[in-house]
Structures are given as C-alpha cells and as structure tokens.
Design goal:
Strands 4-7-6-5-8-9 form a six-stranded antiparallel barrel. It has a three-stranded antiparallel beta sheet with strand order 1-2-3, with no helix packed on it. It is built from four helices and nine strands, in the order βββααααββββββ. The protein has 198 residues and is of the alpha+beta class.
C-alpha cells in the first residue's frame, strides 16, 4: 500500500504497491505518450512477461476482489459486499459518515443479501448476470463476476445471494443458458492472497 513518483524511460510515472490481483506486484501509471517505451523497457527483464486484461481479471476473481460496476455499485453497502473490515473502529463508534444509519444497522442486524463465492459443479462458467437459484428453482440472487479460474482448474464466480443461503457449502444452482447447473457457495478468496507484507 505504498506509492512513489519516479521517472521511467524519460516519463514521469506513479508506481504503487497496491495491485488489484491478489498477487505481489506493482501498478505503474504512465502518460499515454510513454506507454510503449515503458512497456518495452520492462519486457527487457527476463522475469517480466506481458499478459492481457483477461489474465488480470481471472487473478482478481480468484482473489475474491470486487470490481466496481460489477460486484460493487452505489446500491451496495460494504457489509453486503463482505467489506466490513474497511470501516474502522472509530467510524463504527462515532458514525456520522454517509450511509452510517444503514451500515451500522447492517453491522448489528445483518443484511438481506451477501456477496459469496460460487463454485459450479460442472465445467460451464456462470458469467455476470447469471441467475442464482436454490435447489427448488426459487431465485436467490445473481452472479456479478464469473469465469474460469486457472489456478483452481474450473469455473468460479462471485455474486449476491439471499443471506440465508450464504454459508460455504450450501447447495444452489446457476442458470447457464436457461439450464439449472448445480453449484455451491464457496469461501472467498478462491486462492490465497500473496501480498507482500513487511
């Protein structure tokens, strides 16, 4: 969670140690004019290889990290999203922040919906907006992020379900192309984080 300004190949850059993949690494913000020069310089190092957005997104999903606009939006509270750890002790005690009445009530009483990991039993991935249903077919929620997890060797997803069905191991189903495919609630993250810690 550190950042520094530096110059790479003649371009002023911001380098942060707050990557969004669950892996140890860096993010480099580069002026548009310098992207190719910085990328080519980095690729001269044998330990650096290019990846695409899909690889970054599969790492994020395996790490159980939310993506704004998919797993989080202005209608989602930190409690529903499993992010209560972001609300410090002082904030919890004093309140006074935007949405405090709802957030503090949810901390005390729980939520109607909860973000969970989902492991389909079959090979078909459950993509964003795939309905999640109970074993009798009643709607429980929806998938917000989903795809193939290379590190786990199968499809994985995150989504919001009725909180009564949020316990890991709970059987449910995802409606992939209109067919109810068996799945179960899984613990997040799917793959342990490998962040650098001092």
């Amino acid at each position: 969670m550190t950042a520094m300004e530096t110059t790479l190949t003649g371009y002023e850059c911001l380098v942060t140690r707050s990557g969004y993949t669950g892996e140890d690494g860096f993010e480099i913000s580069v002026p548009a004019a310098g992207v190719m020069a910085v990328a080519e310089m980095l690729l001269t190092h044998s330990e650096v290889r290019p990846i695409g957005l899909g690889a970054r997104d599969s790492l994020r999903l395996e790490a159980g990290l939310c993506l704004y606009g998919h797993d989080l939006d202005e209608t989602t509270t930190p409690i529903e999203a499993g992010l209560a750890w972001t609300i410090g002790k002082r904030r919890r005690a004093e309140g006074g922040f935007p949405g405090a009445a709802v957030v503090l009530r949810q901390l005390a009483e729980g939520t109607m919906r909860t973000r969970v990991g989902i492991r389909p039993d079959e090979r078909a991935p459950a993509r964003e907006d795939t309905p999640v249903v109970d074993t009798a077919g009643a709607k429980l929620g929806r998938v917000t992020s989903g795809g193939f997890g290379p590190s786990v060797g199968g499809p994985i997803a995150m989504g919001y379900v009725d909180s009564r069905y949020a316990t890991p191991g709970t059987p449910l189903a995802v409606l992939v192309r209109g067919i109810a495919r068996p799945a179960q609630v899984a613990r997040l993250p799917f793959v342990p984080h490998r962040y650098y810690r001092e």
